[in-house]
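In this supplementary section we document a worked example of the pipeline. Step one takes a protein sequence of length 130 as its only input; no multiple sequence alignment statistics are reported here. Step two produces a three-dimensional model, which step three serialises into structure tokens for compact storage. The input and output of this example are shown verbatim.
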Amino acid sequence: MLTVNVTVTGDKETIAKLNKLKSEINDWRPELKNIGDYLHSFYQNAVFETEGAAFGLRWASLSPDYEFQKRKQYPGRGILERTGDLRRSLEQNVQPTFMEIGFRDPKAKFHQFGTRRMTARPLIHIDNRL
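The serialised model returned by step three reads:
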């Protein structure tokens, strides 16, 4: 027969340490903030600069008519960067147990998923490498 006896001394100190450990286990903000900062930089910079190629989904070219018009009105601007509003609308929200990242610009969902008339040009993509 096996008998185990546990004696706790200094219970206030033990409880305080366990509560501190509990709060550290339940609050992942520092780690999630690091991940969010990385993803924010990646999606706002590398993805736009490579027009989606950064995660292997190069965006479709613009239609010839629209490309001609865009070059005249917005010279030097890449795909999805007419005014820069979409790119600047990327936000992250870090909470103790989760992190969200996304574009607040209402046009983002149409570019992400496409429409009947518009080809999808994904802004966010998660794969094993990321």
